[in-house]
Amino acid sequence: MAQIRLWTVIGPANSGKTSTIGALVSQSKGAGGARDILLRGGGWIRIFAYRQSVQEAGKTPEDEAKRINLIVSKIKRVRPSYVNFLLALRSDSFQGLPQGDAYLNHFVTLGWRIESIVLLGKDMEHPSFNHYADFGAPIAEMLKSGDWLKNDLERNWVFGQARNHFGWA
Q1: What pTM does this model have?
Q2: What tens digit of pLDDT does each residue of 13-25 get?
Q3: Of 5, 23, 41, 108, which is least packed with CB atoms within 10 Å of its CB?
Q4: What CATH number does residue 142 fall under?
Q5: Number of domains in the chain
Q6: Confidence grade of residue 27 (pLDDT, cut at 50, 70, 90)
Q7: Mutual orientation of helices 17-24 and 152-166 as an angle, nearest 10°?
């Protein structure tokens, strides 16, 4: 079976997770799916991207893992080495579902690899995001990102920072 690699955008409600993922994969609406993303160093990578946070979609860590494994199992033409997913996770609890780090913990126990993390919405009022560093993936933090989404210049800065952090063109 292919190695599953995850790129994640994590933050509380209204921090810009959906908008950021939409901008990263040129998806203005819809449930998501496969997108071919240009890489900064040349070439491209196929990413399965979903704009809505996993918790807001009502999925437990186990449910999301089953959904991702089903997608991987449907790739028939080739036997890929890697299958890449871009997910939004909430950093806070939502409707009784766990915080984003519990999802990442579950995915790591399955042998999945966390490639990179973008943390949105961190400010002095929000619980620390420092524990995300324990996953060993590169992290970008964007303080008060929800405030920045109010005008095009600042919104594009947030999107550009996420794109640069992931190494995408």
Answers
A1: 0.90
A2: 888 898 899 889 8
A3: 41
A4: 3.40.50
A5: 1
A6: low
A7: 70
Planar angle of CA 141, 82, 167, nearest 5 degrees: 35
> Coil, helix or strand for 164?
helix
Reported as a pLDDT band with limits 50, 70 and 90, residue 122 is low
Residue pair 10/126 in contact (Cβ under 8 Å)? The answer is no
Instruction: Tell me the three state secondary structure of residue 5.
Output: strand
CA distance 154 to 152: 6
Would you state the pLDDT for residue 124? 46
Three-state secondary structure along 57-94? CCCCHHHHHHHHHHHHHCCCCCCCCEEEEEEEEECCCE
16 contacts 149 by C-beta, under 8 angstroms: yes
Phi, psi (rounded to 5 degrees) for 123: -150, -175
Query: In this structure, what token pair is assigned to residue 45?
Result: 């990578």
User: What are the two backbone dihedrals, phi and then psi, of residue 71, each rounded to the nearest 5 degrees?
Assistant: -60, -45
- Residue 78 burial by Cβ neighbours in a 10 Å radius (0-12, 13-18, 19+): exposed
For 84, the domain range is 3-166
- pLDDT confidence tier of residue 8, bands split at 50, 70 and 90: very high
23-50: b (≥16 Cβ within 10 Å) or e? bbbebeeeebeebebeeeeeeebebbbb
